[in-house]
Amino acid sequence: MIGFAAGMEMADMAWEVKCREEDMKQRALENERHAIDDARRSVDEKAQQLQVLANQSALIAGFSMVVLVESSIPEDIDGVVLTLFGGFTACVIALMLVSTLNATYVLVAILRYDCVNREVPFDVFWRKRCEPDWKLALRTFSYGIPLFMITVSLVAWVSFWNHKSVFYSASVVTAISVMALMYWFGNTKRKWGDFLMMSDARIVSRTISDHGDSDGRNSFPGNIEGTSGKCDNSDGDVSNLEPSSEFMKDIVACDFKSS
Known about the structure:
By secondary structure, this protein is mainly α. The protein is built from five helices and two strands; from the N terminus they run ααααββα.
């Protein structure tokens, strides 16, 4: 009887060991699937960003080329105006072409990344091989936007040169271009420029914790990777955070207000 009990106990232990081994194998397979899915999501995320940048750069470069080719140049136009028009237009085309080519080549490179074997982690591959070209493409695109607005104003002076109201008509276009430039440098570039250049800049949404208070003061609804420090959620104070830019602090404050 004692031998039978000992045998049953040994059988139970062997069964538990077998079940544990199978469970570990299943978890290893699930972890591998999650790793493959994470790599594919990272590739898709970067691919979408590169596609947007390449398309917008190509669009602006095409507009500038059409302006340069299709504009009717008066014979008595001032040489300085004509030189500025040609120079700024060529700069816009060159900058946007560099941005398009870099984004396109990086896009092709990341689409060839092996998400299954992952001999090199995608984050390492992106930082070492792709990120410098991505930043160059983004930087040249940001340089080309103000030059494109200057080109728009110069097109007005070239097109209306022989018209009797050239000063008023071209001045209106120039004023609109100047206002667009002020908005670009004062809002868009200042708000998003440094943020998009950051290596780990991304907004991570988190749900309210079940262990928080009823008003959600002890729960953190949002976080931004790349920040450090603790935040007092009671009044939305984010002064002790150390974000890499003031814009990230504004996002954190907005998250607290919206919650």
